[in-house]
Amino acid sequence: MGNRMTRITALIVGFVVLATPAAAQGRGHQDPPAKPQVTVEAALGATRQVLVAKGFEVVRVEVQGDDRIVYYRAGNQGRGRGQGPPRRLIIRRTDERLVLVDAPDEVRVEIGVKLGIRL
Questions:
Q1: Contact residues for 103 (Cβ-Cβ < 8 A; gap 6+)
Q2: Domain range for residue 9?
Q3: 65 in any annotated domain
Q4: Full-prediction pTM beyond 0.70?
Q5: 26 and 54: one domain?
């Protein structure tokens, strides 16, 4: 009889554990993983890579406070038209995210993919 009671008790405990919500078992709610902190320097490196891959030439980079201003232009496309007019792109760090100001959409998306974040 004692062996039968042990089996019944184990069976009841098993059902109770299965019926208990996952949160009560410590497997439910978990804090979301921390967002990766992307530095301005990492964003600058990714920006250079993307611009060069898209056929642009990085002319210079200026530092103004926490901002990085990237001056770039279209490279020589071999059509006898020379290089394009200079354009600028600003990499700015706010309290919680990275912002690209005056960046073309296709460049912004590719930089975000390269950094693993959404811009």
A1: 89, 111
A2: 1-30
A3: yes
A4: no
A5: no
pLDDT digits (tens, 9 = 90+) for 93-103: 888 888 999 99
CA distance 86 to 57: 9
Strand runs labelled E in the chain:
56-64, 67-74, 87-93, 98-101
H-run or E-run covering 7 = helix 2-19
Residue 50 burial (10 A CB sphere; 0-12, 13-18, 19+): buried
Of 7, 67, 3, the closest CA to residue 40 belongs to 67
Place of tokens 């949160």: 23
- Local confidence band at 32 (pLDDT 50, 70, 90 cut-offs): low
Backbone φ, ψ for residue 79 (5° rounding):
-110, 15
Q: Is residue 14 one of the residues assigned to a domain? A: yes
What's the one-letter identity of residue 22?
A: A
Number of domains in the chain: 2
